[in-house]
Amino acid sequence: MKPDEQRFLIDIFKKCGINRWNITVREIIESPGFYIYPKRAEYILRKWCEKGWYEYGTSIYSGWLEPAGKIKALELIKAGDQP
User: Fold this and answer.
1) Burial tier of 25 (Cβ tally within 10 Å: 0-12, 13-18, 19+)
2) Which residues make Cβ contacts (< 8 Å) with residue 20, sequence separation at least 6?
3) Which tens digits make up the pLDDT trace of 29-77?
4) In sequence order, what are the beta bridge partners of 65?
5) CA–CA separation, 24 and 59 (whole Å)
6) Angle at 80 between CA 31 and CA 13, to 5 degrees
7) 42: CB partners within 8 A, 6+ apart
């Protein structure tokens, strides 16, 4: 997993992973100073969907982490692999 993917996963976990309605993934992507181009973020989210880490309803940008994605984020945080 590339460093930007790790950071993105951890950000989603911390900002909307526990209570997915606090902030949306779209709000993270549209925030000033976001470090990934929107098309790359979309690619990553689709990749995570295939892995079973992420799910969404009508828009990929308003999705949530599945338990497997939360576990991966926690593993990254505990391992200190944060970029």
Assistant:
1) buried
2) 64, 65
3) 999 989 999 999 999 999 999 999 999 999 999 899 999 999 999 999 9
4) 54
5) 11
6) 40
7) 60, 61
Q: What is the mean pLDDT of residues 12-29?
A: 78
Amino acid symbol at 54 = Y
Q: pLDDT band for 24, please (50, 70, 90 cuts).
A: confident
Block residue for tokens 């939360």: 70
Alpha helices in 1-83 (DSSP H): 3-12, 25-30, 38-51, 67-79
For 23: left if phi > 0, alpha if psi spans -120 to 50, otherwise beta; the answer is beta
The domains located in the chain, with CATH, are 3-79 (1.10.10)
Model pTM score: 0.86
